[in-house]
Amino acid sequence: MKKILVLGAGMVSRPMIRYLLNHPDFQVIMASRTVRKAEQIIDGDAHGEAYSLDVTDDKKVEDFISKADIVVSLLPYTYHVKVAEMCISYKKHMVTTSYVSDAMHTLDKKARDAGILILNECGLDPGIDHMSAMRIIHDIKKNKGRIISFKSTTGALPAHEANNNPFGYKFSWSPRGVLLASRNAAKWLENGKEISIPGEQLFENYYLQDITGVGTFENYPNRNSLPYKDIYGLEHARTVYRGTFRMTGWCETLRTIATLGWLSEELPKGFTGKTYGDLTRYFIGTKSLDSLPQITAKHLGLKPYAAVIKRFEWLGLFGDEPLPKEKNTPLDYLNVLTLQKMSMGKQERDMIVMHHEFIAEYSTKKEYVTSTLVDYGIPNGDTSVARTVALPSAIAVKMILNKQITLTGVHIPVIPEIYNPILDELKDFGIIFTEKTTPLV
Predict the structure, then answer these.
(1) Which of 216, 289, 304, 337 falls between 20 and 30 A from 73, CA-CA?
(2) What's the pTM value of the predicted model, to 2 decimals?
(3) Which band of pLDDT confidence, cut at 50, 70 and 90, is reported for residue 173?
């Protein structure tokens, strides 16, 4: 019986564990800081085991890895390289759903020499985005076409019926991760020109995009798109862009939150207040006890009735709620508040929208090709985020153990032998793309 070690028991782990436990030849060992979470996910299955693990205890982590056939790291990305180095030492395959860091790239030769595969970016975004895009890119090239424009955008959102707060957003994964991503700088290629914007201007660079049958969303750039020209083999593309979808109003609101200082990871110097309203007063430099919404609006150059001010008021940034004593930075204070006010209810559904756009050029014609995934979570069950992150990596684990994937080294799922069987099996779970081709004059 093959032993699969899963490190971490976070918000996306359940669909993976349940998938792997459905295979009689697999034994699943979950090691997590909070063993109770792992026990709940395993739910008494005879092929599952749950253990408590402090990931800073290297000796204990090594002990778990040495006894497994393959390791899945669902830990924060900062631990992946350490785990990968241990996997190389013990010649154990490894799968993650996180972006490949520069440090992970440097392990490629060591992984090859050890005869193991370290497969990263095998989740949703990154993951399904790579696989679904590459299938179309390879198909166009096979038909002697070339891609001159590529855009890919993904949004993890509340389903429309669950979109019942003024931010138009609910957290189906780490709130801190969402907030941190709000500070990322971005680069992309547009009509042959490289565009680069700093993190503080991220939310000033969005556009509205209508996705047929789903709705109109804000689309803003996601990190650095430039490497994907080479990663995806888009040598002829003059536009290469990767973006993020949000409901309308998000970009202006988050831009203002960042402007005030609520995304800072540093303890405010000289701040002695005790409430969320006190910290907002500190940010705008006032001790006045007059209406805080009005003073903040004036400070920001907004009208008191502006939607951004109403959203701040709803969230509690002007209120008397005490700042959590166990936290000490504005970002973590905000993280606690957003989790309280903007979590997904058990009866509610989240929604994944992924939309690729290609302009393909052939010898006698041009075509505009779109590929769109719309997937919903299951009320009282798994979220769409959890399913679309966990299932691709779970399928990959099965394929590696069954020797359907025999690669070695550090990889992401951009080759047919990885993406074709994963995308084909995802269809069995209703995770299906709709494609459309339109001739261009």
Answers:
(1) 337
(2) 0.94
(3) low
